[in-house]
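Sequence of GIY-YIG domain-containing protein (Pelobates cultripes).
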Amino acid sequence: KKIIKKHWHILKEDDILNPILPNQPNIVFRGAPNFKSILTTNFTRESPVRGFSFFPQTKGFYKCKQCIVCRTTDLSTPPKVTQFMSNRTKKMYNIYDFIGCNTKNVIYLLECPCGLQYVGMTTRCLKTRLSEHCRNIKNGYLNHTVSKHFIMHNKDPKLLKCI
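Predicted 3D structure, token representation.
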């Protein structure tokens, strides 16, 4: 700040810059990113992506029961989920759009039978990302937190609950 103010007169002497520059520089410092801004993003879709044609296009997460992901994940998850609760904060979250296996740009929640929850984000089809999680668990892949946790517990992707 001091250096810019000290040498501001040099910029003011320029014939092109002089008409646009103010008499004194306005210096504003931008705050460093905090954990919230690093961990969360303004993640919105540019255009609505519709999932299955045989489901009503209302808000909620719908299981198709046809793809490998819907057939292998936890059967106790109802076919339609409109809200879920964080086990950590006990806060309820509503789902405000139609989400299915073919929906892209999704923030999803995986839950272990022990109650541990994992929040993930994908720009690809939801079933593509979830099938990767299931495959990582089956293959014993230890470099990812979800598969590592499931392998330590039971190594059965059928117990994986997706919301």
